[in-house]
Amino acid sequence: MLRTLAAVLFTCLSLPLALPVAAQQPNLPPDVLELPTPIATDNKSRIEVVEFFWYGCPHCYTMEPLLEKWVKEQPKDVDFRRVPAAFNEQWAAAGRVYYALESLGQVERLHKPLFDAIHRDGLRITNPQALAQWLERNGVDPKKFADAEKSFAVESKMKRARTLLEQSRIDGVPALLVNGKYIVPAGQNMLNNANRVI
């Protein structure tokens, strides 16, 4: 009898704690995760969407054209940015390539062609000679690129990217972080789920 009473009492005391969480976000899609501690965004007056990606990821490559179209359809108060996920050193090397291209003002022009070169043509961006040849063919001075890749600015961005990756608690890519609070993982409904959260 005492055990039953204790079980009922424990259940009753637990219910008020569970209800506010469920009531807080009733329309959240089932596979979207809410972070227990929100991450600060760059601009509190806007909605920030971060895409975590890796150049070697086939799912990121498949998602890229859909994502590019989706970004153009977003309301004007939505800021979108990409963050290379650096789960290990190979992924970090690809992140440095992204940030080096960004620092040279070439990332928007070459992001999709680089994805194509990796997944369609077999380019290995961890091979410095192959990457330098590809860059030269695409109008980027390999020396300037190498300098940018080793720069303090790129290393600072990589450090910030790693911190954001850890705070977001994601374990795979592609993934979207909406307003520092919601993780939208890869899947068939990824962009629809992101629209609902936004």
Report on this structure.
The protein is of the alpha+beta class and 198 residues long. Helix content is 55%, strand content 12%. The chain has 8 helices and 5 strands, in the order H-E-E-H-E-H-H-H-H-H-E-E-H. The protein has helices spanning 2-24, 58-72, 89-103, 107-119, 128-137, 142-149, 152-168, 190-197; strands at 33-34, 47-53, 78-84, 175-178, 182-185. The protein has a 5-stranded mixed sheet, with helices on both faces. A hairpin with a 3-residue loop joins strand 4 (175-178) and strand 5 (182-185). Helix 3 packs antiparallel against helix 4 (107-119). The radius of gyration is 21 Å and the shape is globular.
Keywords:
disordered N terminus, single chain, five-stranded mixed β-sheet, 198 residues, 12% strand, 55% helix, alpha+beta, 8 helices
Largest sheet composition: 5 strands, mixed
Mean pLDDT reading: 89
Strand content: 5-15%
Number of helices: 8
SSE order in H/E notation? HEEHEHHHHHEEH
What fraction, in percent, of the residue positions are helical?
A: 55-70%
The radius of gyration computed from the alpha-carbon positions, rounded to a whole number of angstroms, is 21 Å
Strand order of the largest sheet: 1-5-4-2-3
By DSSP, the count of extended strands is 5
Shape: globular
Structural class: alpha+beta
Give the terminus-to-terminus CA distance.
50 Å
Segments where pLDDT lies below 50 for 5+ residues?
A: 1-24
